Batch of 2 targets.
Target 1
Amino acid sequence: MIHRLAGAALRAFLVAFVVALPAMALPDMPSDVSQMVLLAALVGALLTVVEYTAVFPSLIEFRAAPPYNRLRFATLAVIVVLLTVIARHSLHPTLVGSALTSLGSMIGAAMDFPFSPVRLMLVGLPVDASSGTVALVRAAAGIAYFLSLVLVVVFVIVVRILNWPIRKHAFNVWVNLPLFDPTAGGDVLHRLKRDAHFNVALGFLLPFLIPAAIRVAADLGSALPFSGPLTMVWVMTAWAFLPASLMMRGVALMRIADLIEEKRRRAYAQSEHLQPA
């Protein structure tokens, strides 16, 4: 119990820190914005404590199948930290910010080809955007999208080479998939594969759909999300991380479906072998 409480408290602190970091690091934040960010950090910490102190999870998937959530949180934290440093550099230049901005600019330039997600994000900028804004968005988009791709590749390696999630212990489907209802109807294996394909497809399409949605909203009169550094950090983070997280979930569900199918095949083969002649 004490170990579970300590782990939940540490996770809650890390979640609150990541949520509050951009608002704390970026200068000249309005007081109302800081209060909203503080409230969001407290809510995130509270949800984390409740979820990780419970014996069985209710929201977080694959809680008992590391390093799924650890990879996701680590990538999210790195994206938020790097984008915060880049955004702060545009207001208060530093050597670290200059190095990260240069790295992001190189990655963004390499990914800035026709119909790429980075190009679509740049197309969403207003026509009168300054060269500094374009360079900032390209650097942030390049480094965020690159890290999201790294997340997916690393998780695929963990699944295929390190035999996730059964390398160290058995996998409990119902504990690790609290949002999956096995009694909803239909074959569980078919539903898992269908959800896996849907998540991978949606994760692939979202980096293209989000810039289009931003552009449509701008044409309808809504404010662009690049007007402030804090908004830019979180929009870029969501644009890069959410699709990668969906693709990661799709890969995980397909892996679980393969394990169930393999177990069924062994059970059927054993039952046929034991049938009387």
Target 2
Amino acid sequence: MDQWIKLVSEVGFPIIVTLYLLHRIEAKLEAVIQSIHGLSEKVN
């Protein structure tokens, strides 16, 4: 049981941080994609 607690404490934090950052990046990428589509429509 102690090994599981140690594993979760060592690996859990980096996983949570990674998921949080991926969520933020996804939202920003969506905004960039929308901007690119809007720009191509304005050029045409």
